[in-house]
Amino acid sequence: NKDVTEAIQKVAAAYDCKIVEGVLSHQLKQFVIDGNKVVISVTNPEMRVDDVDFEENEVYAVDIVASTGDGK
């Protein structure tokens, strides 16, 4: 999931945008929209997520919020 966080940051920087802090992307399961595995959009020492590995056939809701401001 750290690789995804880094990729999100790189794409935002390429477009002169900042990713809004506090937004998480969640693993989806049948009848569960906020699974245990998450990806944080912006690394933040106050909001930590566990390192996870993606597995075949997993599904995620990818939430990305970008701003041309400071991203807060």
UniProtKB/TrEMBL annotation:
Q: SUPFAM superfamilies recorded for this chain?
A: Creatinase/aminopeptidase (SSF55920)
Q: Which domain of life is it from?
A: Eukaryota
The cross-references to PANTHER family, in alphabetical order and at most eight, read: PROLIFERATION-ASSOCIATED PROTEIN 2G4 (PTHR10804:SF11), PROTEASE FAMILY M24 METHIONYL AMINOPEPTIDASE, AMINOPEPTIDASE P (PTHR10804)
As for family, the record states: Belongs to the peptidase M24 family.
- The name under which this protein is listed is Uncharacterized protein
